Structures are given as structure tokens and as C-alpha cells.
Structure of BMP family ABC transporter substrate-binding protein:
Amino acid sequence: MRRITRIATVGVASAALALSVTACGGKSSSDTSSDSKGDKTALAYDIGGRGDQSFNDAAYAGLVKAEKDLGVKGTEAEPSDGESDADKVQRLTTLARAGNNPVIGVGFAYAPAIKKVAPKFPKTTFGIIDDASVTGKNIANLVFNEEQGSYLAGVAAAKVSKTKTVGFIGGVETPLIKKFQAGYEQGVKDTDPSVKVLSQYLTQPPNFDGFSKPDLGKAAAQGQLDKKADVVYAAAGLAGSGSIEATAKAGKWAIGVDSDQYNQKGLAAYKDQILTSVTKDVSGSVFNLIKSVKDGKPQTGEIRYGLDKNGVGLADSNPAFTKMTDVIAAVDKAKKAIIDGSVTVKTTP
């Protein structure tokens, strides 16, 4: 039976307590990591945590596969509400001192913490998903061409829209989520310039509720539906589930993100209206990093997953979508054009 140890760190105080327990052996930070060869690994989740039906759950799937196929023991660390970078530093330090290798930060929010912690554990590999800004000899940057998958979603949205109005909802207005917006808008306009795109963000940094509160996504989607949008694409983590709910209940098309949300159990009631999802092979990136450490050849530097390597794509789980032959043909044509370089997708709106 698969076993996963879960750590929920609530603020610096409890993290410090955890550190005092794990550091009882008296070893230095680098000493405790020196004997780890990938038998233990850890995921530190992003906002929303496991159960978001999207980004974090995709990372979790990679951990599950690694446990099954590689025999590693996995540890999961959940985020706390309103946590600071200092909390993340303590969390990653705790995980590294416990002998986990690699330690993977799920999301760009871990960049400042990894920058501080990684140099203290030179024999531990640190992975960070969705960030290439923090670098080091023992840091693996797992990044994706989200704009390419989003372009394909824009093609599909423009083809299926009957009202000539579609929506985009971003969780938090950051450079990463702007890539989703940019690709989607370009895909729509390249397919049908007459289609209007309604784009909005749920929150602005440093407020990251737009990734964690479904009610915000639900309200935003309802607002776009009221403006005649009949396809709504949300890149908003857990908040995106609220967008899917509102869109599905209105009998309109929702487009999911990160995971194939048609197959997510928590969204089963709305699956018939989930046209497709822009997928990122987050699970594969997590598995590949864990395997590289296990094999003694840890990945470091930028590891990019694009359309050419199926690192991003468009899910085809909904039978209704696969029966739309003209839509599928348009998506396939666009995919080929991106891969062969005849279409360059923008990364900013």
C-alpha cells in the first residue's frame, strides 16, 4: 500500500518546532542531505494545496507514479493561509534536513525560499515548477510553454462559440498567468478576428486568493456569461473550479487548465460541459526529476516542456469535443504551425 507522509506547516513557529525535532542529531544542513540518493522525496504545495483538481493535483500524480514505479517514499507539505516567504524557507529546510531528495516547490511562489535554502544543502536537488528566475548548481527549473497550449484553447473556443464572445479568467495577475491569457487571445483572434475576448483577473499580488477561492471564479464566470460569453477558460487553480461550475450550470463550455479537468473526480458533476483542458505535464516533470535523482544523474538548470514534446497540450477526453471534426482539424493545424515555427505565440497580452 502506498504511504505518504503529510506535513502541514502553520507559520514560522510550528516550522521552527519541526526543525528543532529533525535537527536533534546535531548534523549540519549539508551533512544531513549527503546520504540521500532519491529514496525519499518531498513536494511542497502551492496555494490551494492538494485537492485543487488542477495544478497541485498534477504534481501529486507525479509523486504517486514515482512511489509506484521507483519505490520512493513521498512526503507532502501543505501551505498555510497568509504565509510568508519565511514560512516557505522553514518548510523547505525541514524537508531537506529530513533527507528528502529532491525537494520540489510546486509553484513560482517558492522562488525566494529556494534561493535561500538551496545553497545550504548543496547535495540536495531542489526543483521549482513554473519559475526560471532562481538558479543554482542544485536547482532544477521545471517550466512550460503555457502560451502554446492556451493558443490551441483559443482556436477551439473561437470555433465553437456561437455568440462570438468568449472569456478568460486569470487567478492572479502575474507574468505566468499572462502567458495563458496571451496565448488564448492570440489563438482566438488568429482563428476568427470577429470573436470578442473578455479577460479579467480575480486578484492582484500580493493577494493570491485568486488561486484558492472558488467563489471568486464562480462570480467572475457568471459576469462573463451575463455578457454573452459562451466559452470560458480559467487559469486560476482551485478558484477555477468555481468558474467551471458556473459555466457548466449555464449550459456553456468551460475550458480547464493544468490537469485534464474532465477526468477530475471533484468536477464530475460538470464534466459534460468541460470542452477540453490546457494540460501541462506537471506530473511528468515531477516524476522525471525524482527519477533523475534516483538514477544518480539529477536534472539541473532549465528543463522546458513545450508543445513539441507534449509538455503542454489540449485534452481530448470529452467525446463531444472529439466529434467536432472541424474544431479538431483547426487545432491540429495550429499545433503543427507552432511546432514548425510558422506561428510564434506571444507570452504577454
